[in-house]
Design brief:
The complex is a heterodimer of chains A (448) and B (173). Chain A is of the alpha/beta class and 448 residues long. Helix content of chain A is 43%, strand content 12%. Chain A starts with 17 loop residues before the first helix and ends with a helix. In chain B, 45% of the residues lie in helices and 10% in strands. Chain B has a four-stranded mixed β-sheet with strand order 2-1-3-4, with helices on one face. The chains are: A alpha/beta (448), B alpha+beta (173). The interface between A and B is large, with 58 and 44 residues.
Chain lengths: 448, 173
């Protein structure tokens, strides 16, 4: 069993209440941080821990904090990104739903480190039931003196509010999130200036993912060095993985970074193997936007060694043979899954979620969706496959925010590794599916 | 018989609006727009009419266009009327690997409507939506603030029947 830092007390009685949380050692880090540490010392511990942003980009959290403009004379804001909407990702939901006080504790310590007087948790609107859980927990924290004026007599004061979105994937992008919190459409901003200089209402702002902020709690309790002992290389600590798709045990797992992908898929402690005794075909290891990998590239790196659940190992080989850890949205496909259908599904998602600001993304995502729809439904032409490749290449890198890249990568990877399935769809338009719309693997074996 | 609904928040809703507005600096009232639109949608029949949006604009001291552009951007705001029970089925990748498409066609057949339509009795509207963050518990749909997960046809029957009875009871009272 690996060490658990975030979900250790998941199944304890009443862990969702202040009482239950305190009984299991909750809010110790607030006591320690506010009474014994300076803000800079906290940032230093976070730097030492090697914690990297858990929302998907993997940027060093301590480093991000150090960019915050502390001399502007303006208020500073910490925004927690709880917009969790990358397909395949549902880890933050579990954390907030079951252990809401862990996020609140992390918010207090992090806000103190950054010198914020008011902080917000931006939560996706569909999670309204979790917003209510968080608001109840926040009220408990105010009542206990962990929030509000002069917290625990330290002289530090903080207000914490939850702000709902209303159904827009793009608001997970930090500048779109800020726009949305300002009561506007979620159109990402051109950077620079970065939010650390001019963010919410033009003030210096840090945006961190739920899991990153929660991880600050064990980092302060046990020290950054202790946290950094877990994991391999620049992938330190534990990571929440949301496992879904054709597996026996879907759910959220906290892993020590560095276990092998094979162990994660087949061990009974985690995914428990592929459902219905089928074969593993492919996997999207880090949320819908990261490249899909076929089994042979997923389980082994180019040097023949096992691929590990770390930032570095999952991206080994670049996009030619690797992928990314991303948000840890681990989607597993069995041998019957249709890669073309899945790619079309994701393309539709990105088309729907494009904010429409940049033409390569606004138009390109729609073209990709329509071309993929044609191929999937038996109206494709061979040259459509190259056309798709061409479109995705022209979206990538040509947009204000990373949604363009996120839309392009899954299409590129599907063609790169599963071109034969696209060709098969074009060649045998009437033979691809059985009545349940399930791809027939034996057909793949026929000569295309 | 159509009753013209007066667009004005109930005292409870008004209290909630003031609580939300207090979360932001005094000169940043516009920040309350998204949460206030959620309240408005709940209060005024599950959708946002032009009158409702104008009312919200007056309340937050912003131009109506600032409300319209937001209401049309976010997928949770309905700018057209919907049935009393709005069924939102997740249709994104991981849910599809676990039978989301079958659930959609089952509901279509059961209610005799297509995605995007409302039943004649104005009870149900069926919508498909993108990833709701329940990938490990697929297939699923959301109704109101509740996630219904690990759906089967039997479960769908039961859930929809229960909700319908609840609504009818509420109307009769």
């Amino acid at each position: 069993m690996g060490r658990k830092l975030l979900l250790e007390h998941l199944n304890k009685a009443n862990i969702n209440t202040m009482e239950g949380y305190l009984q299991n050692g909750g809010y110790r880090s607030v006591e320690k941080a506010l009474k014994k540490m300076t803000p800079d010392e906290i940032t230093e511990e976070v730097k030492k821990s090697g914690l990297r942003g858990r929302g998907g980009a993997g940027f060093a959290t301590g480093m991000k904090w150090s960019f915050l403009d502390k001399n502007s004379g303006k208020p500073r804001y910490l925004l927690c990104n709880a917009d969790e909407s990358e397909p395949g990702t549902f880890k933050d939901r579990l954390l907030m739903e079951k252990i809401p006080h862990l996020l609140i504790e992390g918010m207090i310590v992090s806000s103190y480190a950054l010198g914020c007087r008011t902080s917000y948790i931006y939560i996706r609107g569909e999670y309204m039931f979790i917003l209510r859980i968080l608001e109840k927990a926040i009220a408990e924290a105010y009542a206990k003196g962990f929030l509000g004026e002069n917290i625990l007599g330290s002289g530090y004061s903080l207000d914490l509010h939850v702000h709902p979105g209303a159904g827009a994937y793009i608001c997970g992008e930090e500048t779109a999130l800020i726009e949305s919190l300002e009561g506007k459409r979620g159109n990402p901003r051109i950077k620079p200036p970065f939010p650390a200089i001019a963010g919410l209402w033009g003030c210096p702002t840090i945006v961190n993912n739920v899991e990153s902020i929660a991880a600050v709690v064990p980092i302060i309790n046990d020290g950054g060095d202790e946290y950094a002992k877990i994991g391999i290389g620049k992938s330190t600590g534990t990571k929440l993985i949301s496992a879904s798709g054709n597996i026996n045990k879907p759910g959220v797992y906290e892993i020590e970074m560095g276990i092998s992908v094979e162990e994660f898929i087949y061990s009974d402690e985690y995914c428990g193997g592929i459902k219905n005794n089928l074969e593993l075909k492919a996997c999207v290891p880090g949320g819908s936007s990261v490249p899909i990998l076929p089994k042979h590239l997923l389980l082994k790196m180019s040097d023949g060694n096992p691929r590990l659940m770390t930032y570095e190992s999952l991206s080994e080989g670049g996009f030619a043979t690797g992928s990314m850890l991303g948000s840890g949205g681990f989607i597993v496909y069995d041998e019957k899954a249709c890669i073309v259908r899945n790619t079309w599904n994701f393309a539709r998602f990105y088309h729907h979620e494009s904010c429409g600001q940049c033409s390569p993304c606004r138009e390109g995502t729609g073209w990709m969706e329509r071309v993929l729809h044609n191929i999937e439904y038996g109206h494709g032409k061979m040259e459509d496959i190259d056309l798709l490749w061409d479109i995705q290449r022209k979206i990538e890198g040509n947009t204000i925010c990373p949604l363009g890249d996120a839309a392009a990568w899954p299409v590129a990877a599907a063609i790169r590794h599963f071109r034969h399935e696209f060709e098969y769809h074009v060649k045998y338009p009437n033979r691809v599916f059985d009545e349940d719309h399930v791809y027939q693997p034996e057909m793949k074996m026929q000569k295309v | 018989m159509t009753e013209v609904q007066k667009i004005e928040f109930s005292p409870e809703a008004m209290l909630e609006v003031s609580r939300i507005v207090s979360h932001y600096p005094q000169d940043k009232m516009k920040s309350a727009l998204l949460p206030v639109l959620h309240i408005a949608q709940n209060e005024f029949g599950g959708w946002l009419s032009a009158e409702t949006m104008d009312y919200v604009a007056r309340l937050l001291h912003i131009h109506p266009i600032e409300v319209y552009e937001v209401a049309t951007f976010y997928s949770m705001y309905n700018t057209k009327p919907v049935g009393k029970i709005l069924i939102e089925v997740c249709q994104t990748g991981p849910c599809c690997l676990n039978g989301a498409e079958k659930i959609v066609s089952y509901i279509e057949k059961k209610l005799n409507i297509k995605v995007g339509e409302t039943t004649k009795d104005n009870m149900f509207t069926l919508k498909t939506v993108e990833c709701l963050g329940a990938c490990g518990y697929a297939p699923m749909f959301q109704i109101g603030e509740t996630f219904y997960e690990h759906l089967t046809e039997e479960k769908v029957d039961q859930i929809l029947e229960n909700l319908k009875q609840e609504k009818l009871k509420a109307i009769n009272n």
